[in-house]
Amino acid sequence: MSETASRYRDPAGETAFWRVILTLIAVAFLGIVVVLPLVTVFYEAFRKGSDAFFEAFQEPDAIAAIRLTLTVAAIAVPLNLVFGVAAAWAVAKFEFRGKTFLVTLIDLPFSISPVISGLVYVLLFGAQSYLGPILKSQGIQIIFALPGMVLATIFVTFPFIARELIPLMEEQGTGDEEAALSLGASGWQTFWYVTLPNVKWGLLYGVLLCNARAMGEFGAVSVVSGHVRGLTETMPLHIEILYNEYNFAAAFAVATLLALLALVTLALKTILELRYGDEIAAGRKH
Amino acid sequence: MDVKIKNIRKEFARFPALHDLSLDIASGELIALLGPSGSGKTTLLRLIAGLEQPTEGKIFFGDQDASLKSVQERNIGFVFQHYALFRHMTVAENIAFGLKVRPSATRPPKAEIRRRVSELLDMVQLSGLEKRYPTQLSGGQRQRVALARAMAIEPSVLLLDEPFGALDAKVRKELRRWLREFHDRTGHTTVFVTHDQEEALELADRVVVMSQGRIEQVGSADDVYDRPGSPFVFSFIGESAELPVTLSSGQIIFQGHPIGAAEPGEGEGKLFFRPQDVVLTDEQDALFGKVTACRRLAGTRIAEIDIANHGHAYHVEIEVPLDAPVTLGAELRFRPTRWKVFLATQ
């Protein structure tokens, strides 16, 4: 009896030996690829002591970079919030021609290299383009200035919120909205009192991801920024310059800020997933 | 308020859902739209509500042309199949919603809204649950919250889409009776959609039987059951047997053999009769076939009979007396006592 019991094995499981080996491989991989670099960032930042660490943030260029990063994110994220909600609302609640095309278009930034997205704006608004000189004559500069960096950031991050909301709204259907309308609510009241509360956690989740990406974006922003120190450098660009100047302590110090942002995002994301997992799960397909 | 539906046609992406359909609903009436899925009954309900726009035709609420009005302006109470309660609002907030979203000129003061909510909760027998969320309620309770929410705006017409569809059998029966009482008490013109004929026949003043986007028959429970107007209604409502027959010299002929039932007219047609409307007989002119199965059903016995003739077997079920000598494989002769023949040309 005991012999037959011991011979039984979970058909979908592995033996203890393989379980340990596979787990070790996974942990080792994670350690080398994720944990080690993260620890290194903090280690390098504090290697020359906490004075050097805090000094890095006294520098005007660093302060300007942090301020610019926050500015870009503060413009790009709300715009993408509005765009994402509008796009998801249109795709999920209405039937129209070219819907599949619109969804594909929303996914485009995921499949295009960020450098290309930056380059597109340079070609569109740069000095050699048709639009550039016209805008310049009006005193508007887009490339190598804040507007260009915001545009590039919006482009790169616009799928995050829309992609999070579309499956969620599609799953919820239009029943609640119809109920609200039948009770006499206007379109705006329906959106505000019914649609938005139904997706609020998914929306917050999308905003978090969008924000993390907006602050960390390098490629697209790098192309359109022109690297004017203290003027058009965001944190990722500032880190690169410091690093290229062999100013490791300062480079890693600023990098810890970005890393911290990533950790905070991760923590918030985990909390959201734990508490409102069902609602978010619908959107976790990308 | 009375509702008149005039020559309504509805197409979805060129696919016809309703064909030129008209219906008059009297004020205070309780009407059931009954039909199999795809018959267009829900589409008709949504058209009355204004949740869909008709391709052609008009809908009148009283003397007013409601087809020109939006869903908000029609002032209807709609109870959705899955209730569509707002999950982030409490029961009380759900019920108050229709009042809260009114423009400030017509919105009752807060205290008045509170009073109305507790009155409605009382009416649907859910007092004490106002602080609960929809997920904390049973199916039957959610159903009644949805009803209270729809009633809060004092609708001119109450529309219910499969109101008992998502409930288990026992709750369904209770709520059915409760809804009838509720209707008698409040007197609202009420239209509900169902695919359950028992529900429709028991509950409604008049039943609208629909099939493939058309109204087959409108009538009381007795009308549609005892005097079905079309082959579809006969086979859809209640149990029935269906046989292809010929009418000739005042007799019903089934496969060249008179069945001993007189019917005027000439030509090919379909004979319908109910299992209980037959009598066993020894006469030569009758329907006959082999008993293939026999089962006891409460106070009666049902015999399944294969009428095999000229190679084609027709399967019918008839009720036989409990003391009748019915054995498996034996031949049984019977005649319908009440029947209806629909001629092919009709």
Automatic annotation (TrEMBL), chain A:
Q: What Gene3D superfamilies would the database entry show? A: MetI-like
Q: Does the keyword Transmembrane apply?
A: yes
Pfam families linked: BPD_transp_1
Q: Does the keyword Transport apply?
A: yes
Q: Which residues cross the membrane?
A: 20-43, 64-92, 112-131, 143-162, 246-268
Q: Domain ABC transmembrane type-1, which positions?
A: 66-269
Where is this protein found? Cell membrane
UniProt topology in membrane: Multi-pass membrane protein
Family annotation (PROSITE patterns): ABC_TM1 (PS50928)
Q: Which UniProt keywords apply?
A: Membrane, Sulfate transport, Transmembrane, Transmembrane helix, Transport
Subunit note: The complex is composed of two ATP-binding proteins (CysA), two transmembrane proteins (CysT and CysW) and a solute-binding protein (CysP).
Function comment? Part of the ABC transporter complex CysAWTP (TC 3.A.1.6.1) involved in sulfate/thiosulfate import. Probably responsible for the translocation of the substrate across the membrane.
Output this protein's name: Sulfate ABC transporter permease subunit CysW
Which species is this UniProt entry from? Rhizobium oryzicola
TrEMBL record, chain B:
SMART domains, A to Z: AAA (SM00382)
Q: Name one GO molecular function term.
A: ATP binding
- Which family does the UniProt entry place this protein in? Belongs to the ABC transporter superfamily.
Keywords from the named record: ATP-binding, Cell membrane, Membrane, Nucleotide-binding, Sulfate transport, Translocase, Transport
Protein name, as recorded: Sulfate/molybdate ABC transporter ATP-binding protein
Q: Which SUPFAM superfamilies match?
A: P-loop containing nucleoside triphosphate hydrolases (SSF52540)
Domain ABC transporter stretches:
3-237
The answer on whether this UniProt entry bears the keyword Amino-acid biosynthesis reads no
Any one Pfam family here would be ABC_tran
Q: Does the UniProt entry include the keyword Nucleotide-binding?
A: yes
Tell me the NCBIfam families matching this sequence: 3a0106s01
User: What InterPro entries does the record point to?
Assistant: AAA+_ATPase, ABC_SmlMolc_Importer, ABC_transporter-like_ATP-bd, ABC_transporter-like_CS, P-loop_NTPase, Sulph_transpt1, TOBE-like
